[in-house]
Each structure stands twice: as C-alpha cells, then as structure tokens.
Amino acid sequence: MKDEVYWWYIILESKQGSEEILYHVAQASNSIGAETLEAKDYLRTKLYYRSDLDLEECIEKASSLIKGFVNVRIHDAGKEEWRPWLKMHKEAFPPLLVGDRLVVLAPWHKHKVPLGRIPIYIEPGSAFGTGYHASTQIALRLLEKYLKPGDKVLDVGTGSGILSIAALKLGAAKVIARDIDPAVKEEVEKNALLNDVTTGLILEIADGTRGFNEVVDCIVSNILYEPLIAMLDSFKKILVKGGFMIMSGLLLKERECFVEAVKRAKFSIAEELEEEDWWGVVASHEVR
Length: 288
Fold this sequence. Notes:
By secondary structure, the chain is α/β, with parallel strands linked by helices. 30% of the residues lie in helices and 33% in strands.
C-alpha cells in the first residue's frame, strides 16, 4: 500500500552559502532526493534515503563526508512518509548548458537539445555524478576547451562516466575510464548506452593509476584533494610531452596547497576555474 511506503531522512544544517557542499554530500551519500529550507542565519537541507538502507549507516556516511567542514552538522534524522518523488525528481533536473558546446540532460529531455549543443545524457538518480554539481561542470568546461580531436584520455574516478562520455563526444579517439568501485560498471554502461557510445570507451575497475602502463594525451579526474595529490607523480609518468591534466573536485580553500604541490611535481598551470566553493585546474608538461 502507498501509505506504507517511507524514506529515511537526514537534515544537515550549515551557514548560508554552503549549498554546493550540501549537494556534494547528497550525491556522495546515495541520497535519492533533497530539499532545502533557507532561514536568515542558516541553511537546512533534508536528504532522503531508501527505506531498505540502514539509517545508522546513512548517518555514518553523511558524518564522514561533512568531517572537516566546521560549519556543517547533522541537525536531525528520522522517517518520512510517502511523497510523489518521481514527479518532483523529474522537475528538479532541467537541461543544463555547460561551456560553449555542451548540454547535460536527463534522458526524458531528449527532445530539448538546444541547437548547436552536444548532448550528454545522464540519469540524475545516479549516485556517481550527474553533471549538476559545480565540480563536474568545471571539469566539463575545461575538457571542452583543452581536448583535441584524436586525443587518448584517462578518466580517473569515472563514477557515472560523464567525463568519459563527454570526451568521446568532443572527439577523443579512446578513453580509459577507471574507478575503484565495482558498482560504477552498471552506471557507466547504462549512460554509455543512453549516449549511443559503442566504441572507444574502456572501463577498468582499478585503484587510481595503479598498474596503468599506457601513455595518454589527457588525464581528467574529478575526485578529492588527497588522492589527486597522491597521484601527481604517477600522472607525470603517463602523460605524453605536452599532455595535460584536468583536475576538479577541489575546494577553493585547498587551492593554495594544491597549486604548490602541482608546481613541485614540475607541472605548469595552464588555467584555473572556480564556481561557488569549488575549484579546478589544468596543468601540463608544457602549456598548450
């Protein structure tokens, strides 16, 4: 019965201006939906989770994701009765223009591709990256600008496969998409099918660049500060001379330390982009 259906919820409270951080937590914690209440001095976001999950595990996951953000805390958690989520879910994801040539769309918007735009279809229910997060948009904008037709690309931490799919649609000859989580396989395959990507994409379940012995023109990675720092030296070994890497998923407050690490690794900064609290960078052996 419909009135027997419910969801778990977790309410996060933060200062105004933390919307992007809360959205990131929602995606990374497998939330199926969210709604935000804004007040004068604070922001509260209610994240919803499937009832077949363990609420305590959801709370532990959310707690680990907000660790380090001093202005974000868990305000409340509990049980929410049935609501018409499907309609609300579809209305929450309109077509999103990114850069000069791309548009990210949910599959039910296939008839709404703006003239001259390259469509990237992604199921917004994915927990692995939908394109609506600022860090993904930064990576897409930089990929659009720096990728050359025929480039060979390594996508580290591919998630939903959105950056790999975009690279192929922008003209890459081959993309090796890597992720440590086996659960991404179904997501990547589903999204590749949505985008009619049948060749050029190789998916590998692997830890970062470990065991990767090929040479590529471009590395793109939208993950977190610590693993990106740890892989800088290995990136240098697998990039061709003049190759470039696009790194996103970084907070603005991490910029200074990350730029120093990039320079220590003997890379040149080609461009930086920021959006809200998020930051991304292009670095190269030789600036293109």
